[in-house]
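We were asked to recover a plausible sequence for a given structure. The inputs and outputs are reproduced exactly as logged, with field labels preserved.

PROBLEM: sequence recovery
POSITIONS: 295
GIVEN STRUCTURE:
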């Protein structure tokens, strides 16, 4: 008799081992590297109603602002809550499923060439709301940009290692990669590192860039990389056959194909798109069912 998730033991990365058979079990041996197993998906989302929702939400005069970036994170978290295969990763050629849904991204201290970057992470729960996400990200980014140096976690580790002589840096990085492969990387190496999150996001729209393909990494446990492009106008054919000029944003996602099949990926992307086109869903916690019809 199969054991329940509560009875199973979490590994060092807070995940359960997935006991699977057939091709799913063999694929990590056929394609041992994450970068050998990439699938790239791209779509354009109609966000006309969502932008109106964001404007209305921000008119309340709160001391933080909700952005499209926050909404995309919420929509993806809601999707993964309903589609848990996308919360999986391969390590030691074994399939694992995370307990938490987590996000990572890079924030620049200033929008200028050569400006320092800071790695940031966010963990969501079924009861997490859009307001929770906006407050957390707004507060963390504001704090980071008010500081002159790295605030701790992985940024501090990187700064320390980068200051060492090159041979010593090479030795430490090689040791870190070996420990990472066996799932033995120490906590201070993983704290705040987007490479150990469910989804690594890049908000390219903030620098006026379209969504592009972005590779995965053969380090950490991240299996999904999402890029968000610039908001722009585009002619859309509506359900009634009429044409309208709408506000849209292009989204790109690079996924490790070993964690699920293409059919599962496409349905998951359609769910994110559905959520973004129905702003009323952003008023409920992540764990509330979306009502999406999988036809």
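RECOVERED SEQUENCE:
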């Amino acid at each position: 008799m199969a054991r329940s998730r509560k009875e199973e033991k979490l590994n060092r990365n807070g995940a359960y081992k997935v006991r699977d058979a057939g091709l799913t079990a063999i694929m990590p041996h056929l394609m041992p590297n994450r970068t050998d197993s990439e699938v790239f998906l791209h779509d354009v989302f109609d966000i006309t109603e969502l932008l109106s929702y964001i404007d209305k939400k921000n008119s309340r005069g709160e001391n933080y602002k909700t952005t499209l970036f926050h909404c995309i994170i919420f929509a993806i978290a809601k999707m993964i809550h309903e589609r848990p295969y996308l919360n999986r990763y391969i390590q030691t050629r074994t399939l694992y499923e995370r307990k938490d849904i987590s996000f990572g991204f890079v924030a620049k201290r200033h929008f200028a060439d050569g400006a320092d970057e800071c790695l940031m992470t966010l963990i969501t729960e079924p009861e997490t709301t859009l307001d929770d996400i906006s407050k957390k990200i707004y507060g963390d980014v504001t704090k980071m940009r008010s500081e002159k140096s790295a605030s701790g976690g992985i940024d501090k580790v990187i700064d320390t290692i980068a200051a060492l002589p090159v041979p010593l840096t090479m030795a430490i990085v090689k040791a870190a990669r070996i420990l990472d492969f066996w799932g033995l990387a120490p906590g201070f190496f993983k704290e705040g590192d987007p490479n150990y999150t469910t989804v690594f996001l890049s908000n390219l729209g903030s620098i006026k860039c379209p969504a592009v393909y972005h590779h995965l990494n053969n380090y950490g446990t991240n299996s999904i990389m999402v890029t968000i492009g610039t908001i722009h106008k585009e002619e859309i054919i509506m359900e009634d056959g009429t044409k309208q000029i709408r506000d849209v944003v292009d989204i790109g996602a690079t996924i490790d194909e070993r964690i699920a099949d293409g059919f599962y990926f496409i349905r998951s992307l359609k769910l994110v798109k559905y959520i973004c086109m129905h702003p009323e869903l952003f008023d409920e916690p992540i764990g509330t069912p979306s009502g999406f019809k999988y036809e």
